[in-house]
Design brief:
Strand content: 15-25%
Radius of gyration: 20 Å
CATH topology: Glutaredoxin
Structural class: alpha+beta
CATH superfamily: Glutaredoxin
Helix content: 25-40%
Shape: globular
Number of strands: 8
Number of domains: 1
CATH architecture: 3-Layer(aba) Sandwich
Strand order of the largest sheet: 2-1-3-4-5-6-7-8
Distance between the termini: 55 Å
Order of helices and strands: HEHEHEEHEEEE
Length: about 160
């Protein structure tokens, strides 16, 4: 190897940490398992939205969702139409993909995150013209707090 190519190699190696994040490969997302009631159609829309955003989603159908939510520690005040598990966390309801990624990266001490109810502007609900604002709650066995606030897919303060 000539002296010039060694210098070029060394310069390239030193510059790697300064490359834009978009040029680096992100670690693969863990597989998500979503459990839904057999009669719910918006749950499938949310799963498709997540797939379009890089998630692998398996769907289980269960007619006793109350039992699923209770077993996973989801507070009743946060219940929605479907419940998912990913990377050791619970994701309840129509949570935006970016918030799930954030939770997986930050690894907060929590059971999971939730969007209570079924906000019309949340991903997977797909109600044209809906503009309601909704919160994503971070929860554990004893408390819950706002983790993010959205209007549609746009995070708002």
């Amino acid at each position: 190897m000539s002296l010039v190519s060694r210098r070029t190699f060394a310069a390239a190696l030193v510059s790697l940490p300064f490359l834009p994040a978009s040029g680096r490969a992100e670690p693969p997302l863990p597989k998500m398992t979503m459990t839904k009631d057999p009669s719910c159609s918006c749950c499938g829309s949310w799963a498709n939205y997540l797939r379009q955003n890089g998630f692998t989603v398996d769907v289980d159908v269960n007619s006793n969702m109350d039992r699923v939510k209770t077993a996973l520690g989801v507070p009743e005040s946060l219940w929605s139409c479907h419940t998912a598990e990913i990377g050791g966390y619970v994701v309840e309801g129509h949570v935006p993909a970016d918030v799930i990624r954030r939770m997986l990266a930050e690894r907060p001490r929590a059971i999971g995150i939730a969007v209570a109810g079924m906000p019309q502007s949340a991903p997977g609900m797909d109600v044209a013209g809906a503009a309601d604002i909704y919160d994503v709650a971070l929860f554990d066995a004893s408390a819950q707090r706002r983790y993010a606030r959205f209007q549609g897919l746009r995070e708002v303060p």
